[in-house]
């Protein structure tokens, strides 16, 4: 997966299209990522003890990695990610310009 934890991404498809946020967690086996402030669902939580109230908790849900694109630091637009080998190390680069990420 070309998108990793800590990357700033832009959502390209779905109900939250156009929003941006940082990746909190990635799930490579599911091809999904958890993005801060995107795809937030509400979970109704039952009261656990007598005398306390139940509550509604906002919980971010994972979205497919195909629906997000990495945000370019210079232009602020979504970009595709490629790889380049330098000094026997594989580094991520912007596909269009070749700049390091």
What would your notes on this structure say?
It is a single chain. By secondary structure, the protein is an all-beta fold. It has a single domain (8-94), classed as SH3 type barrels, CATH 2.30.30.30. 0% of the residues lie in helices and 48% in strands. The chain contains no helices and ten strands. Strands 6-3-2-1-7-8 form a six-stranded antiparallel beta sheet, with no helix packed on it. It has a two-stranded antiparallel ribbon with strand order 4-5.
Topology:
Elements: E1 8-11, E2 20-27, E3 32-35, E4 40-45, E5 55-60, E6 63-64, E7 68-71, E8 78-79, E9 81-86, E10 89-94
Antiparallel strand pairs: 1-2, 1-7, 2-3, 3-6, 4-5, 7-8, 9-10
The span between the termini is 15 Å
Q: What percentage of residues falls in helices of 4 or more residues? A: under 10%
- The overall number of domains is 1
CATH architecture: Roll
Count of individual beta strands: 10
Mean pLDDT: 94
CATH fold group: SH3 type barrels
Low-pLDDT segments, ≥5 res: none
Structural class: mainly beta
Largest sheet entry: 6 strands, antiparallel
Strand content: over 45%
Biggest sheet strand order reads 6-3-2-1-7-8
Query: What pattern of helices and strands is seen along the backbone?
Result: EEEEEEEEEE
Rg calculated over all Cα atoms: 18 Å
* CATH class label: Mainly Beta
Total of helices: 0
Using the alpha-carbon principal axes, give the shape. elongated
In short:
The chain has about 100 residues and is an all-beta fold.
